[in-house]
Design brief:
This protein is of the alpha/beta class. The protein has 16 helices and eleven strands. Strands 1-3-2-4-6-5-10-11-9-7-8 form an eleven-stranded mixed sheet, sandwiched between helices. Helix 2 runs antiparallel to helix 3, helix 10 crosses helix 12 and helix 10 packs across helix 13. It is globular and about 65 Å long. The protein starts with 8 loop residues before the first helix and ends in a 10-residue tail after the last helix.
């Protein structure tokens, strides 16, 4: 593999600025790496010709001294982001050949700042999954393997393709979406950094919706600094998105490496769940020691409604999904299965177009919103959501700057090992992440170590609303102490 594909975004930015290599050379190195790594199924669409055209334009701007903040940086885009003139399917059969005539705000801002599109990455169908096994385009395989084993592992989900692409050096960075942990969990499983920003920090316009009050776009990269660089371009107010918040976008990169002395870090006692593996507890303790050594103060806190977060999430999210996915009916775009009448067309199109997990969640969501059940389920879940948010607010009011928790309850598991007979087994992977989405807070997953089988484990930092800067400064402490982790190449 070309050494150019091993660079960080920050190093590639410096190399392009110094003309050590060109944007075209950088794009070509990644396109070559992508060709050799198709066994991972990380990409559902590669765009090498477009990448070279965009890279050539970047070289011209660099030569004129007009380089943008991400000029010439090759990125992968999750197949949930609409890309003008480039197929966008949400990895669902029902959107097989949909080619948007518009660009999502987030991806448009990346191109505005000079980034280069390498292709669209695989994800769980409509972002519904924790392992990237529900994609109509096939499962993604993690670039990691257990010691002495060839068992294929999941990269996590739903943004598994983006995580695998970054971890395997098939992109310098990638976009993801996080509804209940879909950036942070795959980042932890693949040994990279993933950030879920505050709800409203990044526009949702042009992003295929799963659960509108929970979905949030965010970046994947191999370092905390790179994640900060990407977020500055992705974030910002968008009048086209009514949930977008009009607050200034700071220079996130400037926060990386700042002192954390005096920061008060909460350790939520409710995150010590029954049956938590000893190595996850040890990792959590190690993280506490690293932050204390850097001058932070560790404080045990209580988030009493945490235990209700997962069941409440799996009522709210399917309810919103059942509403959002009603638009896929075979009339305007995507798959159409003819029927004897319009009802027959609707039924045939949705039955054939949606996969098993998506159908399950639509049915759950429709049920909890139906007459007689709305008050018993959906309304109660929204009340729990308010209590979860108030738990965090109470801690922050007592001077807590951020929370430290595990990112996942285990390392990556094997393809097909979970969720077959019991979908709840798969849903439990989100136990540490869903509270962040329910409360609309920012959260970052940072690689912190390896388990006994040589697989990466991550720690999660949860911050105050619109205080991603603190997460970047704390995340850098963990990264500096733990180091970075790269899988051994078995795929090429």
């Amino acid at each position: 593999m070309s050494e150019l594909a091993k660079l960080t975004i920050a190093a590639a930015r410096d190399g392009l600025k110094q003309k050590t290599f060109s944007a075209v050379e950088l794009a070509d190195a990644h396109c070559a790496a992508m060709e050799k790594a198709r066994a991972l199924n990380a990409y559902v669409l590669e765009t090498p010709e477009r990448a070279r055209i965009m890279a050539k334009a970047s070289d011209a701007r660099i030569a004129k001294g007009e380089a943008g903040p991400l000029e010439g940086i090759p990125l992968a885009i999750k197949d949930l982001f609409c890309t003008q003139g480039v197929r966008t399917t949400a990895c669902s059969h029902i959107l097989d050949n949909f080619v948007p005539t518009y660009e999502s705000t987030v991806s448009g801002q990346l191109w505005r700042d000079g980034a280069v599109l390498l292709g669209k990455t695989n994800n769980d169908e409509f972002a519904m999954g924790s392992s990237n096994e529900t994609s109509f385009m096939g499962a993604v395989t993690s670039p990691w393997r257990r010691k002495g084993s060839n068992t294929p592992l999941v990269p996590g989900g739903s943004s598994g393709g983006s995580a695998a692409a970054v971890a395997a050096h098939l992109a310098l960075g990638a976009t993801g979406t996080d509804t209940g942990g879909s950036i942070r969990q795959p980042a932890a499983f693949t040994g990279i950094v993933g950030l879920k920003p505050t709800y409203g920090r990044c526009s949702r316009w042009g992003v295929v919706a799963f659960a509108s009050s929970l979905d949030q776009a965010g970046p994947f990269a191999r370092t905390v600094r790179d994640t900060a660089i990407m977020l500055r371009s992705m974030a910002g107010y968008d009048p086209k998105d009514t949930t977008s918040v009009d607050v200034p976008v700071p220079d996130y990169e400037a926060a990386v490496g700042q002192s954390v002395k005096g920061r008060r870090i909460g350790i939520p006692k409710e995150y010590r769940i029954d049956g938590m593996p000893e190595e996850i507890e040890r990792l959590w303790q190690q993280g506490r020691e690293w932050l204390e050594a850097a001058g932070a103060e560790l404080v045990e806190v209580s988030l009493p409604h945490t235990k209700y977060a997962l069941p409440a999430y799996y009522i709210v999210a399917p309810a919103e999904a059942s509403s959002n996915l009603a638009r896929y009916d075979g009339v305007r775009y995507g798959l159409r299965v003819p029927g004897r009448d319009i009802i027959g067309m609707y039924e045939g199109t949705r039955a054939e177009g949606f996969g098993k997990e998506v159908r399950r969640r639509i049915m759950i969501g429709t049920y909890v919103l139906s007459a007689g059940y709305y008050d018993a389920y959906y309304l109660q879940a929204q009340k729990v959501r308010t209590l979860i948010k108030q738990d965090f607010e109470a801690c922050f009011a007592q001077g807590i700057d951020a929370m430290l928790t595990p990112a996942t309850p285990s390392a990556a598991f094997g393809v097909g090992e979970k969720g077959g007979a019991d979908p709840i087994e798969m849903y439990l992977n989100d136990v540490f992440t869903v509270t962040v989405n329910m409360a609309g807070l920012p959260g970052i997953a940072v690689p912190a170590g390896l388990d006994g089988q040589g697989l990466p484990l991550g720690l999660q930092l949860i911050g105050r609303p619109f205080d991603e800067e603190t997460l970047f400064s704390l995340g850098q402490v963990i990264e500096d102490a733990a180091g970075r982790f790269t899988p051994e190449r078995w795929w090429a």
